[in-house]
Design brief:
Shape: globular
Number of strands: 10
Strand order of the largest sheet: 1-2-3-4-5-6-7-8
Number of domains: 1
Structural class: alpha/beta
CATH superfamily: Aldolase class I
Helix content: 25-40%
Number of helices: 7
Radius of gyration: 16 Å
CATH class: Alpha Beta
Distance between the termini: 10 Å
Strand content: 15-25%
Order of helices and strands: EHEHEHEHEHEEHEEEH
C-alpha cells in the first residue's frame, strides 16, 4: 500500500509537537520568518526539537532570509531540512549544503516541470496556492493544474487549504509524495488542535487504504 507522508507545519508549542508526533506525523515545520504569526525564534528551536523522536524530521521554513539567519537557526537544529518560500534562486537554496524543499506558488504562470528543472538540486517541491505576500494563505488551488504523478521527476508535497474534509480527495486526485497542513489543524494561528491533527492523519490514511485497495 502506498503511504503518503504527513508534515504538520507552523508549530510553536512543545505540546503541539508532541501531539503531531503522537498522531503519526512524519515531519514538523518551524517557521523562521519573523512576519509570520507562527514565527519561532532561533533560540526556541532546540527546546521544540527535543520533543521529536528519531525518524520524525524537523523542517525550517525561511522567506528571503539573510544567510546569517539561516545559519543561526541551523546552529540550534543542525540536522533540519530547509524549506524556502521566498524569491530564492537555486544557488541561494544550495549555499547551505543541506537538503532543501523549494516552495512554489501555483499561479497561472507557474509550470511545475519547469520548476523541477530550475531547482534540480531540491529534494522535493512543495506546491501551494498563490497568496498576498509570502507563505500559504490557507486556501486550496486548482489541483488539476498539476501534471500526473507519472510525469513528475521529483517528490511533490501538496499544501494549501488542506484539512480533514478535503485531504482524502486531494490525495486521490494528486497522488503526492506528502501533504503539508498548518491552518487546517489549528484553533488559532500557531496553536494546533490535537483532535484535528488526529482526524487529518486518519483522513490521509483512509486515502492511502482506498488507493491501495483499488
Amino acid at each position: 500500500m502506498s503511504r503518503t507522508r504527513i508534515k504538520v507545519c507552523g508549530l510553536t508549542r512543545g505540546q503541539d509537537v508532541a501531539d503531531a508526533v503522537a498522531a503519526g506525523a512524519d515531519a514538523v515545520g518551524f517557521v523562521c520568518y519573523a512576519k509570520s504569526p507562527r514565527y519561532v525564534a532561533p533560540e526556541a528551536l532546540g527546546a521544540l526539537a527535543r520533543r521529536l523522536p528519531a525518524f520524525v524530521a524537523p523542517v525550517l521554513l525561511f522567506v528571503n532570509a539573510p544567510a546569517a539567519s539561516v545559519e543561526a537557526a541551523l546552529a540550534h537544529l543542525p540536522h533540519a531540512l530547509l524549506q524556502f518560500h521566498g524569491d530564492e534562486n537555486a544557488a541561494d537554496c544550495e549555499r547551505f549544503q543541506r537538503p532543501y524543499i523549494r516552495a512554489l506558488r501555483m499561479g497561472t504562470g507557474t509550470d511545475l516541470l519547469d520548476c523541477e528543472r530550475t531547482f534540480s538540486s531540491a529534494c522535493a517541491l512543495l506546491v501551494d496556492a498563490p497568496a498576498a505576500g509570502f507563505g500559504g494563505g490557507g486556501v486550496a488551488f486548482d489541483w488539476s493544474r498539476l501534471p500526473p504523478a507519472s510525469g513528475r521527476g521529483k517528490p511533490l508535497i501538496l499544501a494549501g487549504g488542506l484539512n480533514e474534509t478535503n485531504v482524502t480527495k486531494a490525495i486521490r486526485q494528486v497522488r503526492p509524495f506528502a501533504v503539508d497542513v498548518s491552518s487546517g489543524v489549528e484553533r488559532a494561528p500557531g496553536v494546533k488542535d490535537a483532535e484535528r491533527i488526529r482526524r487529518f492523519v486518519a483522513a490521509v490514511r483512509a486515502a492511502d487504504a482506498e488507493i491501495g485497495s483499488a
